[in-house]
Design a protein that fits this description.
With 204 residues, this protein is α/β, with parallel strands linked by helices. The protein has one domain: Alpha-Beta Barrel (TIM Barrel). Helices cover 47% and strands 16% of the residues. It is built from 8 helices and 9 strands. Helix 5 links the parallel strand 6 and strand 7. Helix 1 crosses helix 2, helix 1 runs parallel beside helix 8 and helix 3 packs parallel to helix 4. Belongs to the KHG/KDPG aldolase family. Pathway: Carbohydrate acid metabolism.
Length: 204
Amino acid sequence: MTSQPTGLVAILRGVTPDEAVAVAEAIFDAGFDAVEVPYNSPDPLESIRRIRAAGPADRRVGAGTVLSPDDVRRAADAGASLIVSPNTRPDVVAETVRLGLESYPGAATPTEAFTALDAGARAIKLFPSSAVGIDGMRAWASVLPAGTALVPVGGVAAGNLADWAHAGAAGAGLGTSLYGPGDTPDVVGTRAAEIVRIWSAATA
């Protein structure tokens, strides 16, 4: 495992509870900081519960595609410590912050990013990052408050990860390029290790 935080989040869309722990362990062992189970996966809250129970208390386990304050509360009850959304809803951010969880609201414009920050977020999920682009992220960074973590998601893969890192991304969320339903832990772990290697080299 890497000795320094990477800021990398594995998006396990489609993972089932029976495979969630083994896949998550392979990803954490490779050096990822966090895994996220989206709500549109089979029984996502049970997967979150199992991943949380299998690891240390400070392990970062997230719920994704979180669209309402009720979703936030249910994820928190299951043991999620970070809340990831594809959109910016101030009430979702506010409830996340109220519960002491990390908020990763999705934003595609600077206006949405500022709205998320006003609601209490300290990190912004650039989504889809392929639309915002690296030049767009740099422009956002020039006007957002210092210390705002910008995390591209959507189209990030091993082939362009270093470019995002060099541009100042605080981390990245990786989904289909890392995990697909039915992928074995060994396969996912190998991919994760290569992604961590690329990120670590680019941020050294």
